[in-house]
Amino acid sequence: MYKIIDGKQVASDIKKEIAEEVLKIRNSGGKIPHLAAVLVGNDGASETYVSHKVKACEEVGFKSTLVRLDKSVSEKELLDRVDALNNNPDIDGFIVQLPLPDHISENKVIEAVDPSKDVDGFHPVNLGKMTIGLPSFVPATPFGIMELIRRYGIETSGKNCVVIGRSNIVGRPVSILMSKKGTDATVTVVHSRTKNLPEIVRSADIIIAAIGIPGFVKADMVSEGAVIIDVGTTRVESDTTKSGWKLKGDVDFDAVAPKCSWITPVPGGVGPMTIVSLLHNTLLAGKLKGNM
Ligand code: GUN
To answer: Which of 47, 83, 53, 52 is nearest to 68 (CA)?
Structure first.
């Protein structure tokens, strides 16, 4: 019988741990962690993500600031706002919600963020540090995945891990973390150009599915006893929900789960972990500055 990796529960446990730390900081007269988020335009999904981030800050006792900018904002104006946040000593960390409008270079904006405040872990300095095993801010989803694996005591040393997808924010960084010293998995990254993909995925003890295609991983791609981390969160039409849509993962859950030892559900698996990763990084940013 397979067991569920309950990301909702772990996220709630971590939020409690962070809230206790904030209380200690408050009681000892330290500086309260302060996260800022920059939201450009009013894309529905981005609004939802950012409002969840702000709400999570409030839940653990952080300060939060939301900087809203019109979608017509110039790249120069946005870079000036980033600079102001870099230079504001009260802000411990901040994020610029992606995607940005087409007339703004995301790379320029990411590189403008002070790496010591880059709690998304997207700056090349942080990605570089992570790659060579130095302490750094780890991007939210990879951090959340690693924390689930650690807290559930899932054995990684010497295991075959297949990562499906090579995005800069999930597949590539998680493949680096899974192979690092101390975690010690043997990692293969597969993607849209991979030959014999099902055969390679069948060789996995641990599958991390981050390709963004709902139901992509079928039962015949999975070996008995595999551990599956499903990162997919695609909105698909549904006549059983009020909103008319529901979230579907990259794994054909009903068919695949009976073959697994452990599996993350969608929703309630990796998703809830991403926001606590951001809170964790913000607390870390404050501590590294000696603020707390
Ligand atoms: N858009 C989707 N995911 C993310 C994220 O983790 N950080 C930011 N800044 N934007 C996103």
So the answer is: 47
